[in-house]
Amino acid sequence: MSMGFADPFDTLLDLQRSLEATLASDWLQDLTTSRGPFPPINVFQQGDDLLAIIELPGVSKSDLQIQAKENSIRIFGRKAVDYPEESSLHRRERVSGEFDRTLSVPVQIDPDGIKAEYRDGILAVFLPRAESDKPRTIKIT
Amino acid sequence: MASKKELQVAQKRELEKKEETTIPARIFVPNADIYETKDGLNVVLEMPGVDKNSVDVRVEDDVLKVDGKLDFSKYKGLQPVYTEYNIGHFSRSFRLFGKIDQSKIAAELKDGVLSLMLPLAEKAKPRAIQVN
């Protein structure tokens, strides 16, 4: 048997193969949305304004708070996941506990015009752009 | 040659495609809890923003299957700036132990949480074993 120097790229390739094998195996099963930051956020642009859609399934409105600053909003609160007494747990994927996320946006927000609605486990926050921050067309004379 | 009606249907589909949001859609897997009480199995799945008419729950050959679609058509026309979560179809299957009384399965979707109550059939209910 001949022996030589180990190729550093072999180590990387082995790592990649191991990772792919792990993902392909049944051990992890399907990837769920519990990975990553909580709560997940989507941001849409609506003309000059922004609309933030935040996934908060099973959260009570009373456990939810929103704070706004010039160019950021903070969403924080508590998500409770309860099980009946004397129940035995087979699988637990739902995350419970306190959450706190701040979303920074590249525009100035009008804090007085912010509107929020919680429905079907989705928090929709309308973020109007401040008048002073809106682009103005300059007339060339 | 396509008939006038077929052309109209094709045009409508094209229009619907254009109106869809540009967020990439893919199959996603909702988080699930499964717990057992003396009455049966409880399966709880998180599906925020999903309409109850877009969810299909079936039990076939001791497999519980939950399929559906997160419809984001109400946000059509809006320009996505930043996206973190999946939009589109979802699917999740669970192999059930014991026999389920399918006639008594109850489902409720509230605040983006689907709760399924699957009562065990009489024969499958747990029995206390006496230790001699």
Task: Describe the fold and architecture.
The complex is a heterodimer of chains A (141) and B (132). Chain A is built from one helix and eight strands, in the order H-E-E-E-E-E-E-E-E. About 5% of the residues of chain A have low confidence. In chain A, a hairpin with a 2-residue loop joins strand 7 and strand 8. Helix content of chain A is 12%, strand content 35%. In chain B, strands 1-2-8-7 form a four-stranded antiparallel β-sheet, with no helix packed on it. In chain B, strands 3-4-6 form a three-stranded antiparallel β-sheet, with no helix packed on it. Chain B has 132 residues and is mainly beta. In chain B, strand 1 and strand 2 form a beta hairpin. Chain B starts with a helix and ends in a 13-residue tail after the last strand. The chains are: A mainly beta (141), B mainly beta (132). Strand 5 of chain A pairs antiparallel with strand 1 of chain B, so a sheet runs across the interface. Chain B: InterPro entries: A-crystallin/Hsp20_dom, HSP20-like_chaperone, Small_HSP. Chain B: It holds the Pfam family HSP20. Chain B: It comes from Bradyrhizobium zhanjiangense. Chain B: This is Hsp20/alpha crystallin family protein. Chain B: Belongs to the small heat shock protein (HSP20) family.
